């Protein structure tokens, strides 16, 4: 649950670097993945997460660093000899082979007897819920079914580590939510460590036990989803994980001093203050206090005017244009509250939050 | 403007050809009259095109009794088959190498050159080369020469297919424990099979009627069919030649149809 190194990691990555020509795709990555762990590599496109995954599979040649799996050097083995399997983003199902032959491809290459291959294939087909489709070609399957075939093909060899490259990106939105749960269930069931690459923070947060946030070839933070959300180490992680309001200024003992002298409550060191939308209390300003100077912290932390409210079932999102301090991105401050909106467009409001709810980060 | 039907949006294709059928028929006429001439004359009972007498099948049996033509046909088939095997194997390997292991456009151009260069250049070059290294001219040299440009065509066809092939298919195969050879045989080859087949057909038919290069690189005693035909038509086209051309036409059409059917079937499969 923390950044501390694991006692006996299954996968141990130390100082891994890779480059394409002049572009350094990985800059000295250190990571540990435990046995049976659901681990996510999260980052924007081009952050190096795919290169990292492909290095583990054996399709990229890192220039520097070591990777051990269960104590054995992984980089010394060619791709086809690694006890690691990968589920490809495009699924990469063999179009000329049936579902059964696709799944049986790995066991057959391993030299298992035909009856043994058939037994394993049948078992995995049951595991992923593809009964009755074994004779079909990939072209005769739906997107969700193809994904199951790809998954079955990747776990049938019983690898020690399963790599998943954007496993859900090719699916429709509603199928995706269902497959997220399914992947997690399956991971518990088969007891294989999963390393999944994704650019979708929701996906990473909802599935993974721990998440590594990457940017520009570096790992910025490794933590549980809750920890990442509550205690981001820097502005990038804060903005990448969930929705946030970020202010720039100078750290003081009890908050962040922003341009104009206002002090926003928060704890930590650095020059950015992060406050989550649901941690902000919003209330309409009493008429008598509306004559006060703008930008002050009298009463509330911030004052502003409601630009828009958006009711989406269980909760309401409210955009507030603040007077005085504005967010780094220049966007309105976002507030969310459970239930129906308590303020309306155009209302003069005060925003408050406690110092414990906001973090000051680098 | 006012006569335009309301359903017709601008830029929409019109129903029917209108007056466009006149140039269309003109073009088809231009393309197919020579072919029709050959077929018609092969059934003409008179000896010359100048006297169309009546329908006759007599030139066909006469054709088969001509042992020289038969020999030339066998020579041609040997050369075409050899060139096909040679260029299909070499061209496929070359295409895989070019697509999977380099990104050099220069190398691409170098490989494709024999297909684009004028035949005459290739013919003269090959003749000089064979003479220089002391290779006696005959069917082997023709076969090698045809394989040289056939390879370029096979590369072109197979390459186009390989470029479209999802690279991760081969990676998945490796990931599942197959070495490079098993991957090539079990994944790459089945995926590019239609293109390999099309390339093979192409190199076969190209060799079948190739004249210039064969003329330069052949020995005196083993004429291929085009050379044999040419040596006969110097004194006018005989009806037997028309019959032969008609048979070649039928064979080529059949080959193209078979090829198209195979392609269509495999494309349906992996669609």
From TrEMBL, chain A:
GO terms for molecular function: ATP binding. InterPro entries: AAA+_ATPase, ABC_SmlMolc_Importer, ABC_transporter-like_ATP-bd, ABC_transporter-like_CS, Mo/tungstate-bd_C_term_dom, P-loop_NTPase, Transp-assoc_OB_typ2. Residues 11-241 form the ABC transporter domain. Pfam families: ABC_tran (PF00005), TOBE_2 (PF08402). It comes from the Bacteria. The keyword 4Fe-4S does not apply. Gene3D superfamilies: 2.40.50.100, P-loop containing nucleotide triphosphate hydrolases (3.40.50.300). Keywords: ATP-binding, Cell inner membrane, Cell membrane, Membrane, Nucleotide-binding, Translocase, Transport. This is ABC transporter ATP-binding protein.
From TrEMBL, chain B:
Keywords: Cell membrane, Membrane, Transmembrane, Transmembrane helix, Transport. SUPFAM superfamilies: MetI-like (SSF161098). It comes from Nocardioides bigeumensis. PANTHER family: PUTRESCINE TRANSPORT SYSTEM PERMEASE PROTEIN POTI (PTHR43848:SF2). This is ABC transporter permease. Coiled coil: none annotated. Its main location: membrane. The chain crosses the membrane at residues 20-43, 72-99, 111-133, 139-158, 179-202, 241-263. Belongs to the binding-protein-dependent transport system permease family. CysTW subfamily. It is a multi-pass membrane protein. Residues 73-259 form the ABC transmembrane type-1 domain. It is found in: Cell membrane. Pfam families: BPD_transp_1 (PF00528).
């Amino acid at each position: 649950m923390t950044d501390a190194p694991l006692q006996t990691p299954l996968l141990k990555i130390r100082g891994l670097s890779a480059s394409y020509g002049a572009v350094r795709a990985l800059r000295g990555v250190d990571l540990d993945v435990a046995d049976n762990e659901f681990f996510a590599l999260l980052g924007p496109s081009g952050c190096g997460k795919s290169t990292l995954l492909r290095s583990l599979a054996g399709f990229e040649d890192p220039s520097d660093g070591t990777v051990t799996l269960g104590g054995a050097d992984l980089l010394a083995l060619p791709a086809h000899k690694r006890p690691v399997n990968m589920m490809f983003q495009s699924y990469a199902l063999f179009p000329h082979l049936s579902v059964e032959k696709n799944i049986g491809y790995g066991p057959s290459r391993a030299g298992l007897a035909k009856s043994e291959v058939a037994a394993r294939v049948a078992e995995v087909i049951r595991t992923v819920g593809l009964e009755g489709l074994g004779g079909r070609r990939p072209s005769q399957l739906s997107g969700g079914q193809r994904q199951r075939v790809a998954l079955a093909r990747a776990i049938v060899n019983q690898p020690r580590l399963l790599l998943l490259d954007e496993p859900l990106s090719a699916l429709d939105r509603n199928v995706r939510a269902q497959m997220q749960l399914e992947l997690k269930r399956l991971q518990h069931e088969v007891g294989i460590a999963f390393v999944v690459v994704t650019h979708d923070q929701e996906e990473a947060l909802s599935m993974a036990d721990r998440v590594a946030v990457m940017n520009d070839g570096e790992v910025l933070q490794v933590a549980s989803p809750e920890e990442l959300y509550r205690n981001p180490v820097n502005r990038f992680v804060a903005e990448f994980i969930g929705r946030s309001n970020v202010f720039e200024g100078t750290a003081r003992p009890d908050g962040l001093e922003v341009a104009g002298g206002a002090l926003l409550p928060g704890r930590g060191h650095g020059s950015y203050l992060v406050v989550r939308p649901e941690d902000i209390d919003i209330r309409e300003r009493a008429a008598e206090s509306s004559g006060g100077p703008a930008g002050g912290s009298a009463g509330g932390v911030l004052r502003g005017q409601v630009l828009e409210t958006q009711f989406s079932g269980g909760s309401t999102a409210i955009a507030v244009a603040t007077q005085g301090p504005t967010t780094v991105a220049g966007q309105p401050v976002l507030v969310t509250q459970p239930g129906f909106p308590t303020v309306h467009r155009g209302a003069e409001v005060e925003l408050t939050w406690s110092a414990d709810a906001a973090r000051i980060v680098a | 403007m006012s006569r335009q039907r309301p359903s017709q949006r601008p830029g929409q294709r019109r129903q029917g050809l209108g007056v466009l059928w006149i140039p269309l028929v003109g073009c088809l006429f231009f393309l197919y009259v020579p072919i029709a001439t050959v077929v018609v004359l092969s059934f003409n009972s008179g000896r010359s095109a100048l006297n169309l007498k009546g329908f006759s099948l007599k030139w066909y049996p006469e054709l088969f009794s001509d042992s020289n033509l038969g020999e030339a046909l066998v020579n041609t088939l040997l050369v075409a088959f050899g060139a096909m095997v040679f260029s299909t194997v070499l061209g496929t390997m070359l295409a895989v190498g070019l697509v999977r292991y380099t990104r050099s456009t220069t190398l691409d151009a170098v490989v494709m050159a024999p297909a684009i260069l004028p035949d005459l250049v290739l013919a003269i070059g090959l003749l000089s080369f064979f003479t220089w290294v002391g290779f006696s001219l005959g069917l082997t040299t023709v076969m090698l020469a045809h394989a040289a440009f056939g390879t370029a065509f096979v590369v072109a066809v197979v390459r186009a297919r390989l470029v479209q092939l999802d690279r991760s298919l081969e990676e998945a195969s490796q990931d599942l424990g197959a070495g490079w050879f098993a991957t090539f045989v079990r994944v790459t080859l089945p995926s590019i099979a239609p293109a390999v087949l099309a390339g093979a057909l192409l190199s076969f038919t190209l060799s079948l009627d190739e004249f210039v290069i064969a003329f330069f690189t052949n020995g005196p005693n083993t004429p291929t069919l085009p050379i044999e035909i040419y040596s006969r038509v110097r004194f006018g086209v005989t009806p037997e030649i028309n019959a032969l051309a008609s048979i070649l036409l039928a064979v080529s059409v059949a080959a193209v149809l078979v090829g198209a059917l195979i392609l269509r079937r495999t494309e349906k499969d992996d669609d």
